């Protein structure tokens, strides 16, 4: 599995699984947020951050969309620096369109 910019070839098995799960969330908006976050940050995350990312990923996608878009308040257990960094992440939609061959 390869993200848009990050190849899983040089990742350990745990990071490979996380990269795949980030790009296959079930809701396309979450694929883009989590996938690009993973492409850019996954290799540098510490083990404790990977644990936390997996806990975040266990949440329902419909809830995550609302929390990340700010339409519902983030629950206390997710008010962490990693979640806030993920929620503030702005995917590069131009890059996605280019990789997918979509022109405007």
Kindly report the CATH topology: DNA polymerase, domain 1
Percent range of helical residues: 55-70%
User: Could you spell the SSE succession in H and E letters?
Assistant: HHHHHH
Q: CATH H level: which superfamily?
A: Flavinator of succinate dehydrogenase
Describe the oligomeric state of these chains in a short phrase. Answer: single chain
The major sheet is characterized as: none
Protein name: FAD assembly factor SdhE
Organism: Rhizobium leucaenae
Pfam families: Sdh5
GO biological process, one term: tricarboxylic acid cycle
Entry summary:
With 104 residues, the chain is mainly alpha-helical.
Overview of this protein structure:
The protein has 104 residues and is mostly helical. The chain has a single domain, classed as DNA polymerase, domain 1, CATH 1.10.150.250. 59% of the residues lie in helices and 0% in strands. The chain has six helices and no strands. Helix 1 packs antiparallel against helix 2. The termini are far apart. The model has no long low-confidence stretch (mean pLDDT 85). Keywords: Chaperone.
């Amino acid at each position: 599995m390869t993200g848009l910019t990050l190849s899983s070839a040089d990742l350990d098995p745990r990071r490979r699984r996380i990269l795949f799960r980030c790009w296959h969330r079930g809701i396309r908006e979450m694929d883009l947020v989590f996938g690009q976050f993973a492409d850019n940050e996954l290799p540098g995350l510490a083990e404790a951050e990977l644990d936390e990312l997996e806990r975040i990923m266990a949440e329902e996608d419909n809830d995550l969309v609302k929390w990340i878009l700010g339409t519902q308040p983030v629950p206390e257990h997710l008010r962490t620096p990693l979640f806030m960094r993920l929620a503030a992440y702005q995917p590069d939609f131009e890059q996605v369109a280019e990789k997918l061959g979509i022109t405007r």
